[in-house]
Amino acid sequence: MNWLTRLNARLSRWAMYVAVAALLGITALVLWGVVMRYVFHNAPPYVEQLALILVISVAMFAASAGVREAGHIGMDSLVVILPKKVQFIIGVIVGLLSIAFGVVLFAGSLQMALAVYSNMIPTLDISEAVRYAPCVIAGVLIVLFSIEHLIAMFTGKEVEPSWY
């Protein structure tokens, strides 16, 4: 599992870098759009569409990194009072459901990207498929990170956080 841990730690870090960069991009882009609209009365037409792509990127990359860091919403207060065997079974179920979610996210997003590939975002002059790229990548990352968590559970190890 060492190679998977190293790979996933690096992928998780990069997912967060992309999420942070996209968040900074949204901030700068919206500020630019507001200044151009209200100060110069010349609103750039691409701001809204680009901001939407960046919002999707923030959500998908941060969510996938959250899966690796076990930062997703959980019912820990209920699970910790259960016997260890039941905790293990619930952990396996959560891991399998996370993998299923990642597969569905990947497959559905890829299908949508392929369906709209020939359509263009008019204000950006790029393919509509770009909107779905973060979801496709996040689906793969969620599957990889969930597999790592399941392997760690079955081997009695902990997943090493990416940020320490």
TrEMBL record:
It is a multi-pass membrane protein. One of its GO terms (cellular component) is plasma membrane. InterPro entries: DctQ (IPR055348), TRAP_DctQ (IPR007387). It comes from the Bacteria. Signal peptide: none annotated. The chain crosses the membrane at residues 14-40, 46-67, 88-117, 129-147. Keywords: Cell inner membrane, Cell membrane, Membrane, Transmembrane, Transmembrane helix, Transport. One of its GO terms (molecular function) is transmembrane transporter activity. Residues 26-154 form the Tripartite ATP-independent periplasmic transporters DctQ component domain. The keyword Methyltransferase does not apply. One of its GO terms (biological process) is C4-dicarboxylate transport. It is found in: Cell inner membrane. PANTHER family: 2,3-DIKETO-L-GULONATE TRAP TRANSPORTER SMALL PERMEASE PROTEIN YIAM (PTHR35011), TRAP TRANSPORTER SMALL PERMEASE PROTEIN (PTHR35011:SF11). The complex comprises the extracytoplasmic solute receptor protein and the two transmembrane proteins. Belongs to the TRAP transporter small permease family. Part of the tripartite ATP-independent periplasmic (TRAP) transport system. This is TRAP transporter small permease protein. It comes from Candidatus Dactylopiibacterium carminicum.
